[in-house]
Queue: 3 jobs
Job 1
Amino acid sequence: MDHVPARSPSRAAMRFGAGLACAVALPLGAQQYIADEATITEHGACELQLWHGRRSSSVLPACAPLNNLELSVGFTVVWEDGRDGHFEYVLEGKTLFRPLTTDGWGAALVVGIGRDPALASTAPQLLSYYVDVPLSLSLAGDAVLLHSGTGWLHERVGGHDVDAVTWAARAEVRLRRHVHAVGEVYGAEGSAHAPAEYQAGLRAFARPGRVQLDLTYGARLGDGRRGQGWTFGLTLITPPFL
């Protein structure tokens, strides 16, 4: 497959060096998909993720100012909250335990404050903390990529503290040179959140390593009339500044 360095593992410590040459061939980041992956923005570079959908719209810049550390700060507008919509935020840090390489596997750790993107709820989250452990697997020379994540979420809604276990699983299959099919399921257990949901769509690389386009449709499992609906996403990636 084409070499697509965006959201590739950073040139971190020497122990990551052997895997970097393969890892930079992996596709870009998750965009509006929920399941995260064991890759981070290239060291010294930044990316800007934008997506707009029926239920919410977001802007999420991410940069890797230090070796093996990606920092993100973003804002979301939730449209379907029964009122006129509301703003939410997210502050997130991500590091790699093991970088994802071609025909290999990887693992990462994500810690965040703010709105966990895995939430299906449209109610305002007054205060939320979350931790996620993404696992990724590359097969057939990156023609098939599998990502899964399991995490913990603590939020305060309506004056009550709520804890939940979050989960997500995503598969990405290369159809053509610059076109991939992507599908995922995700949900949260142990809380009052909505039922599990799915998303599926196409991913195109307008400029490999720099510009990615996503078009997805999402709904609740067993109830296709509710859920994410159509979402369009755009990711822009800079060369390293450092």
Job 2
Amino acid sequence: MSKLVISALIALTMTFGPLTALAAELKIGVVDSNSVLMNSAEGKRIQESIKRKAEELSRPLGSKRQDLTRQVDEFQKQASLMKEDARRAKSQELEKKMADFEKQAADADKQLAQFRQSEFGPFTKKMEQALEKVSREEKLDLILDKSMVLISNKSLDVTDKLRSAFGQ
């Protein structure tokens, strides 16, 4: 039994030994890309543009939502006084209007997602180029985003260097 344990330990050492040596030589940097986005002029412009587009798309939906809610409330108040056929017809009409509204809302969400992607595309490319520059200059093997790291040494933070490379 002890030969099996010793063999397993030797196998583990041979397997993971080189990895620990590699990890000791690995240079890692941490960046707060969200901070760069929130504090850059370009990032603020993109956020404002997306906010305006969201308001533009939601404005007509808001009035339709209010109108539909009013119609449903009226129907619920009058439903008990209506004949069965009229109640069924009005219910089907409202269900169709609700389905149309949900489709319009889904279309608006899709348009906003496409707009967001088109706005962030050039920004993301510029951010990647700045990260590559920082990686080369600092000779980093790996750069992690702060949002994905639970704990990090402050000396690993290269956010200011990213801001500089990004042009802030």
Job 3
Amino acid sequence: MPRAGWCRECGAWIWVDTADGCPSGHSPECVSDRYEAQPVEPASVHDAVGDGEPPRFLGRQARWLVWGAVGSVVATAVTVPAAMAFWRPYGLAGAAVVEPVVWLVAEIALGLWLAGRMLIEHPVTPSVADEVA
């Protein structure tokens, strides 16, 4: 059964060679979190291509994107009048428009930053299909 592990010198998941080291020549001490990869059938290049529909995971992401956009617009539409009513006695009704927009932009920026960090900190682990290809 093929074995994989994390090479701290390469900074990536790698296939472990017969000596439990990195194929790039790094010693076995540099490789941690070794595991036995489960054999699977390699994916075909033609799987889910040309049928006109995205795979089920991408469809789910698209639905979340739409709901997130709708929720953001509704939340902003509700927040602006409420904020204007709160700030009007102080003569700062104009600030009521800026405040929700600033929060919305900050939330979007935070979401993008977190998504980028997840990709950096959790790289894709190799699969048997990668080794076959």
